[in-house]
Hints:
single chain, 158 residues, signal, DnrO protein
Amino acid sequence: MNAKSARKLAIACALALTGIAGVTTGAVAANDQVPPTQAEVKWQTDTALEQGMLNIRAVVEQSLPQIRANQFGDEHYNALGQTIETQVAYIVKNCKLEPSADAVLHDLLEELSSGIDRVTARTAENQRTHGVSYIIAALDKYGRQFGHAGWTPIKVVP
């Protein structure tokens, strides 16, 4: 089994175990793909989730020019991390999703938290720009997983 097939099989197993999809591992192995209807599913959002994610996206996007120009100091990274952390807390407190969507959201919030830890230098890895990359990746994943009307990913220009 190649790596692509193994990854798809692992995803299908995880979905089947959580009850999110009615996909059997045999169906995935035979067709080597997840049925298109499952791949296109986007979870429903609510106002609190959308507002929090828009605020996170805005603060990250506004910071990128200074980060790219290497003009973002420790105090800037700390403020960015605190702002995002505040928005994550707002989402956790106010967002009300159905249980399956909530589980997907919690995984996404863990990814954001990992980025926040790097941005604020709470990890041994002191490369704050990596934290920003984690956060941008989580925002992109949010757009792929949730049906937030009008959501656009952050344009990352090298």
